[in-house]
Write a structure and sequence with these properties.
The protein is an alpha+beta fold. The protein has a domain of about 70 residues: Ribosomal Protein L30, Chain: A (2-Layer Sandwich). About 35% of the residues lie in helices and about 20% in strands. The chain is built from three helices and three strands. A three-stranded antiparallel sheet has the order 2-1-3. Helix 1 packs across helix 2. The longest helix has 17 residues. It is elongated. Bound molecules: L-tyrosinamide (TYC). L-tyrosinamide binds next to strand 1, helix 1 and helix 2.
Amino acid sequence: MADEKIKFDEFEGELLTEEDIKLKRPDMYRIILLNDDYTPREFVVWILVRVFYKNKEEGARIMLEAHTKGKSIVGVYTYDVARSKVMQVHQLAKQNEHPLKCELEVEEGGEEQ
Ligand code: TYC
């Protein structure tokens, strides 16, 4: 039917302009290393080198910060990468009978400029 035809003009003013579309960066996830009383310091540094590709100096710095302050940020990753690294840490700690744990904190993406 003729009156079912939609005229392009009817949409004028309803189209989203670039300013209407708020672009949001993807959420990223901080991995937080938690201190405990039992995991050997060398093992923590080994984990930071093996799982997070830190060099030994950076690994030692992160380990010492967790040791003295209770926790330390290891790095910021996409969700899948962060989750996989946390799982590797927990698996390697368990295999070696250490209680080492780390956790994830979301870092909201926010609007793009
Ligand atoms: N506090 C542990 C010890 O004295 C070492 C340690 C450091 C454990 C950092 C965990 O995230 C950690 N053996």
